[in-house]
Amino acid sequence: MATPHSCQTGGGTAVAGRESAGSAQASPAAPVLGKNGREVGADPAQVRMRHAALVRVTHWLITVSFLALLVTGVEILISHPRFYWGETGNVNTTPLFTLRIPSSRGTVPTGYGYVLPDQNGWSRYLHFESAWVAVLTGLAYLLFGFLEGHFRRNLLPVSSDLSPKGLARAIARHLRFRRPSEEEAWSYNVIQRVTYLLVIFVLFPMVIWTGLAMSPGFTSAVPSAVGILGGRQSARTLHFFVSGLLVLFLFVHVFMVFLAGFRSRVGAMITGRPAKGEERA
Amino acid sequence: MSGLSRRQLIVGGLATAAGASGLAVAAKLAARYGLIPPDSGVLYGAGETLTYAAQRLLTRHSLAREFASSQISQYPFANAVSRLGEEFQRLEKGAFEEWRLSVDGMAARPASFSVAQLRSFPWHSQITEIACEEGWSYVAEWKGVPLAHILDLVEPLPQVRYVVYQSFQRYWWDSIDMADALHPQTLVAYSMNGGELPVKFGGPLRLRVPRQLGYKSVKYITRLTLTENLKGFGKGLGSAAPEGGYAWYAGI
């Protein structure tokens, strides 16, 4: 599309943008029908996609790896559900705070009369394997995002949306929990844009950084990675909180997908097109 | 089918072939430069191999963080130690005079050292953090003989690639590669915070590997074996840790 954020700048341009895309699709003089009855255009690139293939593939790879990181992260956490600040901390020192959950280690005073089974072995193996998947996928996504203009076009908010009035309007719309208009199926609103940028450029880098800051091997090569954070235990505590923010994002994100129409939004992230739309013949 | 052109097929085929042969070459090179961990064949071996290879490329000579003496933990935690048995108690009563650290395997001059002999060797001390995979940690001053010095004395054969170490607790053994074995901070430690190394912290002898998590710093070591290949030890995964589900490499 020619205008970036066409759906954000106002109803008029958004509709115009959509119409032009729609007509570009309907215009071929002799539409060819494929085996499944789908229209096969002369140039497949002309078919209007909601999400690029790379965005869809990386989205689901990140989804799977994030869920694995979350489950294994919780498993690792319950072997020591106490948090500290600074360089060191153990059961002989005062914690910053303690989670009131049972532990998988008998050495941790939890107040529960039982010890959960130890799951740290496979959890640690899978945690780091998933982290590799997430990091490599994230790198591919970043490369695509910058080179193909995905961030600039789809995620960078337009300045008019960032005005107090524009933001207030968008927030009010969200708080009413109303199903978004059809146009929003084709573009992100300002709150989505800001949130996604925060997740991509702040939360994910932070969770990777705080994770690496706990690695004695990595910090031997890059000591400042843990030094800046105030020590190993601070890094661990921050890792927990940043993960918490990512989980919060996950919940709100999934809730919003339900609100907007689960089938259409998830369908769009799988096939590239919203389930119901104007491009179907 | 108009979907895939001949050109796309050729380009795709070439890319796949290039990718596959690239991977094969990468695997060969990785094995040659010691970037494949012994537990690379387990369920999560792919991620483990990436971690080990990446850290070895990044950390071959790097030093674990050291701290000021003011940062030594007042309340270190020894972790639970399972029963050591009557034989250990007997040795402890004798002030560990009978304790021996034997060094065997691919060495030109295998040897056996008493704790007193080790204490007479050149020593190194460092204030480093010991961090458990569970999440807790403490900082302590460790003093001992650099493992590199002991290896010098026994003259390893050139093909040695790992040092296997055995605990007095028979089920507990581990191994490290030469990057860690020859590392200046890897110690056969006999002293902690200026005093004797307490039994619960691994006395009389503990291998301190500060660039890896606590479970690689095995307590009560009695034997070092130099080897080219870890296949003959236990299940061949390089340590008792992977046999219990834990990774051999614990730099992360």
Mean pLDDT of chain A: 83
DSSP E strands of chain B, number: 10
Strands of the widest sheet of chain B, in order across it, are 2-1-10-5-6
Q: What's the gyration radius of chain A in Å?
A: 23 Å
Order of helices and strands of chain A: HEEHEEHHHHHHH
**Helical content band of chain A:** 55-70%
Model description:
- The complex is a heterodimer of chains A (281) and B (252).
- With 281 residues, chain A is an all-alpha fold.
- Chain A has helices at residues 11-26, 53-77, 120-147, 150-155, 164-175, 190-212, 216-221, 224-227, 232-271; strands at residues 32-33, 39-40, 82-83, 97-98.
- Chain A has one domain: Transmembrane di-heme cytochromes, Chain C (Fumarate Reductase Cytochrome B subunit).
- Chain A is built from 9 helices and 4 strands.
- Chain A has a two-stranded antiparallel ribbon. Chain A has a two-stranded antiparallel ribbon with strand order 3-4.
- In chain A, strand 1 (32-33) and strand 2 form a beta hairpin.
- In chain A, 28% of the residues are buried.
- The termini of chain B are far apart.
- The mean pLDDT of chain B is 93.
- Chain B has 2 domains: 11-60, no CATH class; 67-243, Oxidoreductase, molybdopterin-binding domain (Sulfite Oxidase, Chain A, domain 2).
- The interface between A and B is large, with 42 and 45 residues.
Task: Characterize this entry briefly.
Chain A has helices at residues 11-26, 53-77, 120-147, 150-155, 164-175, 190-212, 216-221, 224-227, 232-271; strands at 32-33, 39-40, 82-83, 97-98.
